[in-house]
Write a structure and sequence with these properties.
Chain A has 366 residues and is α/β, with parallel strands linked by helices. Chain A is built from 13 helices and twelve strands. Chain B has a five-stranded antiparallel beta sheet with strand order 3-2-1-4-5, with helices on one face. In chain B, a hairpin with a 2-residue loop joins strand 1 and strand 2. Classes of the chains: A alpha/beta (366), B alpha+beta (118).
Chain lengths: 366, 118
């Protein structure tokens, strides 16, 4: 069993800089995912810069170099949009690898042809979306007919080439019941882990909340499935990354699942750089702190008032929560609150909506 | 970045648990993130330590309840940090699971063939 423990958790070392960054290479995407959380996906958020604007290969290399001169960068997750739409992805990956940084490609998987896999295989890993063992459900969530077949081919190509594969499952009302067999399909495809994310609400996907938002009962059912999977398919690793707040489902009885919490702008954060160099506290946040083509990261990290308030924020609804739970949860995803309410200091909208879900809801109104 | 060690020891002092490994003594959290009963049982015994990361100190041990905080939305990073002991599913496991999915009618023969090619 893979288990780890770490001193001082979940607190960060005072003043320590992050080691992981997300680089959104492009806004372009060949999918239209219903659950998409990108800040630029919702015009109401007023995210700046034209859709097609992207840094050149040279600008990206320069930005990575200067970031590395400021922070102990160990991992860069390449995201988008769809990062494989950038023709220079192999060159960017090679540069990252040459700098001693481990890359992670976060992709919808449809463009992982044998040729593209060969060109991008530099020792990092591929995190590929797989939302169902049923093609029509995956395609519905992806907003792209025929996506599932391409994803299966793409994952098989990565496995055949000996690459590291992790499947990403976004849980919604449409696919939560498919989780067990979808995880089995991931195992059959050679994945060594699954990332389980309940849908994270944002300004774009909020319109689909009625159709997509799983109830706490559905989430709990999924955690039972994951627990069973973890026991049955050891050493298959299972990780929850979008916060499942303890007031929605008590996570403490699940021994085979890794639960993730929001790092709140601290050392374990993954500050996110968009395709033109704007930097945000994470890939869900719509708030631009500055631009790394002109601003120093350390200055933003240590001094930006938004980052400081982000670190300190605790929703009023959480005041009476059990101290230990409050310490790790801190109101769930602040970026989702920022997207939906325009402030990071409110409770994660997932919790608020769960509390409104009526009879049968594990939390209930209140 | 990552250093491999093989042995460590849990010690109990002033009401707190500590891990001695890789030439360091680091406090171990209890409660939500770890199983205190397990820690109590292990005090003084030599333990296998899969890997450690010096800063911030991370040690991977067998049987200590709750895992580390995973980075939101990119836990592949955490998976990578553990790659020294996480193993890919074996060929037999992937084949058996694929066969079960096919027999159960969850995937088609075509998909099964694609998986087998991989």
């Amino acid at each position: 069993m893979r288990v780890t423990t770490k001193s001082g958790q979940p607190q960060d070392s005072p003043g320590a800089l992050p080691r992981t960054f997300v680089l959104e290479l492009t806004r372009r995407c060949n999918h239209r995912c219903l659950y998409c959380y990108t800040a630029w996906g919702a015009p109401a958020l007023g995210y700046p810069e034209p859709q097609q604007a992207e840094m050149s290969t040279a600008e990206i290399k320069s930005l990575i170099g200067s970031l590395q001169s400021e922070a102990p960068v160990e991992y860069i997750a390449l995201s988008g949009g769809e990062p494989l739409l950038r023709e220079d992805l192999p060159e960017i990956l090679a540069f990252i690898k040459d700098r001693g940084i481990t890359p992670i490609i976060i992709t919808n998987g449809t463009l992982l042809t044998k040729e593209r896999v060969a060109a991008t295989m530099v020792g990092g890993s591929y995190e590929v979306s797989l939302h169902s063992y049923r093609p029509q459900i995956h395609d519905r969530l992806s907003g792209c007919q025929g996506a599932w077949n391409k994803v299966i081919d793409g994952m098989a190509n990565v496995h055949q080439a000996g690459g590291n594969l992790v499947a990403a499952f976004v849980a919604t009302k449409l696919n939560y019941m498919d989780l067990f067999h979808t995880a089995e399909l991931a195992i059959a495809l050679g994945c060594w882990g699954m990332l389980y994310n309940r849908i994270n609400l944002g300004a774009h996907n909020l319109r689909y909340a009625d159709e997509l938002l799983p109830t706490p009962g559905m989430i709990q059912e999924n955690l039972e499935m994951l627990e069973e999977l973890g026991a049955k398919y050891h050493p298959f690793a299972i990780s929850i990354s979008i916060v499942i707040e303890p007031c929605v489902v008590d996570f403490r009885k699940y021994k085979h699942i890794h639960f993730g919490w929001c790092p709140k702008g601290g050392e374990n954060s993954y500050f996110t750089i968009d395709p033109v160099g704007n930097v945000r506290t994470c890939n869900h946040s719509p708030v631009i702190l500055g631009n790394l083509k002109r601003d120093r990261f350390t200055k933003l990290f240590y001094n930006h008032p938004y980052v400081r308030s982000f670190r300190e924020s605790l929703p009023a609804e959480c005041a009476n929560c059990e101290p230990a739970l409050k310490e790790i949860c801190r109101g769930g995803c602040s970026a989702a609150a920022e997207q939906c309410y325009g402030t990071s200091s409110r409770l994660d909208p997932f919790v608020t909506l769960c509390r409104q879900c009526g009879p049968g809801c594990a939390v209930g109104p209140g | 970045m990552e250093e491999k060690v093989t042995k460590g020891k849990i010690v109990y002092k002033d009401g707190k648990y500590f891990l001695e490994a890789a030439g360091r003594t680091e406090p171990l959290p209890t409660g939500l993130l770890t199983d205190e009963a397990f820690l109590k049982e292990q005090v003084g015994k030599e333990l296998e330590v899969f890997f450690t990361i010096p800063k911030p100190f991370v040690a991977a041990l067998r049987g200590i309840g709750r895992p580390v905080i995973i980075l939101c939305n990119i836990p592949a990073v955490e998976f990578l940090r553990g790659e020294t002991f996480i193993t890919q599913p074996t060929a037999a496991m992937t084949r058996n699971v694929a066969t079960a999915l096919l027999k159960g009618g969850f995937i088609t023969q075509e998909v099964f063939n694609t998986i087998q090619q991989g």
